[in-house]
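Milestone M4 deliverable, item 7.
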Amino acid sequence: MAEVLLQRTQAMRVVPVFSELICRCADWADILAIPLSELRSLIASLGFQNQRSTRLKLIAAAIVEHGEPQTSGELEELPGIGEYMARALAVQLFTECVAPIDVNIARVLRRVFALPGSQDIRGDHELQNLAMDLVPASDPRSYFFAILDLGRTICTSSNPLCTSCPVATCNYRNGIIRLDCQSVE
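Output delivered:
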């Protein structure tokens, strides 16, 4: 539920809405049972309430009918769940060894490894392969949250805090690449 609410919305705005939602709807059957108009009202403060409420209802119907998904592949079969969300949930819920990549994670990897930028993260096979190679099988969840936090707090899109970066070998930090990830040599 939370991942649907978090799409394109800051976590701090989602927390009170999510808290109220889980008080009213403890499981997917409850989401399915609540009238769509009530669900929209519950999440209206986040915006996109029509899209979010419809997606939650479709996901709830699929889960109630087929059972809880157990892998990123099964999650991706749910209506409105794409590759990133499926992988992010699988890492968090099942500790599956997958590499969810959003724009923040892509930025970190591109800067650290001096990879060229691409508008379509999903079509960037070099980035996808690198991300998968980096995920430690022993603790993919901690790795995922660490790289998310790095992108959120230090390796930001504007004014990155390179002097605070824990990645000593980062090509961006060390001045080897510019913002667009092109070599300065």
